Predict the 3D structure of the following.
Amino acid sequence: MIVQEALEYAQTLLAPSSESPRLDAELLLGAILDCDRTALHIHQDRTIAKQQSEAYLKLIQQRQNRMPIAYLLEEKEFWSLSFKVTPDTLIPRPATETLIEVALENLPPKQATRILELGTGSGIIATVLAMERNQSYIVATDISVEALKIAKYNASVHQCSAISFLCSDWYSALNEVEFDLIASNPPYISHDHECLLDSSLTAEPLHALEAGKTGLDALKVVIPGAVPYLKTGGILIVEHGYDQQSNVQYLFHQAGFTQVRTVQDLQQQPRITIGQK
């Protein structure tokens, strides 16, 4: 089988289940052949070895079953950087870039600051903040040991040594330390939300998505729990559902935060709320 034939065959198989069958086919074949999509277009008559063809078909079958491309490639681009992801971690989404942008606006460059990230997952938020504010010291927590392995790997690949990763159920394992900024993208989907039935989401870790009957269980811990860990004037930033703005702002005010405001994401949805202690 040659490249052109493999791509056409895979595209036909993926068409009923994928919104981008040709792109999926090319990305997966590129991974098998260790080349980019341009090389595939140039060398369409390249012969694919039997072992490579078998590995490719296996990936295509997994994609037919709606396994996300990011998990099949074990890679996702975020902030123009490449990060490793596995089914132990959420796949980064564009909305989280807004969280990072808001954080950077509140972290003066060339100034040593202490940052806490809760629920780090693949470590993308901590790693990007460490790269953008390289004089900062960062603590990143997660309850999943497997997720922390991925986070540590990503930080290492991007040469971020100023991050301490800690296995913790939110604040439970933290010492009495005050931070300049706390950031979190916690679970915020209600347990009966229809989106959890989407087959592409079922591959992701449920504990990182679902947060009780209203989707606010984690936020009810993260927001008031931040107060003793923030310096006076410190900042809390959280990501939340597009329909949770009023509830999240109420939690901020109830915990005593001031200058509370919500920022829209790239899709113009209210997604990030920030407050000051």
About this structure: The beta strands are 76-78, 81-83, 114-118, 137-142, 163-167, 179-184, 230-239, 258-264, 270-276. The chain has a mean pLDDT of 93. The CA atoms of residues 123 and 230 lie 21 Å apart. Residues 85-276 form a domain with the Rossmann fold fold (CATH 3.40.50.150).
